[in-house]
Amino acid sequence: MSNIQFERIALIGIGLIGSSIARDVRELGLAGEVVVSTRSTETLKRAEELDLGDRYTMSAAEAVEGADLVIVSVPVGASESVAKEIAAHLEPGAIVTDVGSTKASVIAQMQPHMPEHVHFIPGHPLAGTEKSGPDAGFAGLFRGRWCIFTPPEGTDPEALAKVRRFWETLGSMVDEMDPEHHDKVLAIVSHLPHIIAYNIVGTADDLQTVTESEVIKYSASGFRDFTRLAASDPTMWRDVCLHNKDAILEMLSRFSEDLASLQRAIRWGDGDKLFDLFTRTRAVRRSIIEAGQDVEAPDFGRHALDPKPN
Ligand SMILES: NC(=O)C1=CN([C@@H]2O[C@H](COP(=O)(O)OP(=O)(O)OC[C@H]3O[C@@H](n4cnc5c(N)ncnc54)[C@H](O)[C@@H]3O)[C@@H](O)[C@H]2O)C=CC1
Ligand SMILES: O=C(O)C(=O)Cc1ccc(O)cc1
């Protein structure tokens, strides 16, 4: 039986996320044809070596011709230029979606360029790593992870159902919310942790004498966890900071207040306050694990992407 959900999928951007989608689509046979497009010749060549698609082109406009699903997986700051490039070449009835980490800005950049005859359904898979580029992707990345859609009002329910089904086939759990809410939630659960990691690793690096020896030598401690996040792609995270500015600043201001309060508790030896906070935060970690959201020990049952049992 055929698993084909779309006749032609155009992947614009073939880094960590685009290439992970490509691997799943090809393993599961979800598309009649996969067309890969990216901006740099080197990345396109690598995508071809990795056999991520059926056709390869430097032109996003050419890639979307005849495609019934277009997935834009580029740094969020490049969304408008991609939208402008593909707009006139989109097939009537095509679904255009994206994977960007911020939603209000991507919508503001892309929607004005989308013709009436396509379905623009912005999305965001909450799955990834600190790595980037086509070699970093892998099949199964989206399994057991959330994918959030922020469909504009009046979105065609059939098109939405098709794109939801696509992500569910990749193993994701799908949710919908408005873009502003998405951006606030992601500011605290994803963007701030990265910013804090960039900051602490930067501070340690500024303390030259420490960095030269002790930081590397003793990095088996908590610092090591921060260095993973702080190794994330600079272009992608510069764009996230610039394109979710308001929500990030709001959360940072709240964070700074709470940090000052923690600082005061340490200065004045307020052990009860420290103990209460650390007890509360430990419970948060426990509830994440109980909800099955722990990265180290996920158990989401068998999935189409699992290797077949012998
Ligand atoms: N890395 C992660 O963990 C996650 C990233 N995202 C989002 O997915 C999107 C892609 O991220 P990654 O795949 O990690 O990045 P990546 O750096 O691995 O890949 C980006 C791709 O976009 C292409 N590209 C860059 N600038 C471009 C431009 N101006 N025009 C056309 N193509 C361009 C690159 O050639 C590359 O193929 C970003 O919007 C990011 O916010 C979403 C979830 C997780
Ligand atoms: O590597 C990690 O820990 C991540 O948090 C990956 C990630 C990065 C950006 C997103 O928008 C979603 C997921």
Task: Describe, in plain words, how this protein is organized in 3D.
- By secondary structure, the protein is an alpha/beta fold.
- The protein folds into 2 domains: 172 residues, NAD(P)-binding Rossmann-like Domain (Rossmann fold, 3-Layer(aba) Sandwich), CATH 3.40.50.720; 125 residues, Orthogonal Bundle (6-phosphogluconate dehydrogenase C-terminal fold).
- Helices cover 50% and strands 13% of the residues.
- The protein contains 12 helices and 9 strands.
- The strands form 2 sheets. It has a 6-stranded parallel sheet. It has a 3-stranded mixed sheet with strand order 7-8-9, with helices on one face.
- Helix 1 links the parallel strand 1 and strand 2.
- Helix 7 packs across helix 9.
- The chain is globular, with a radius of gyration of 21 Å.
- The two termini are 21 Å apart.
- About 3% of the residues have low confidence.
- The structure holds 1,4-dihydronicotinamide adenine dinucleotide and 3-(4-hydroxy-phenyl)pyruvic acid.
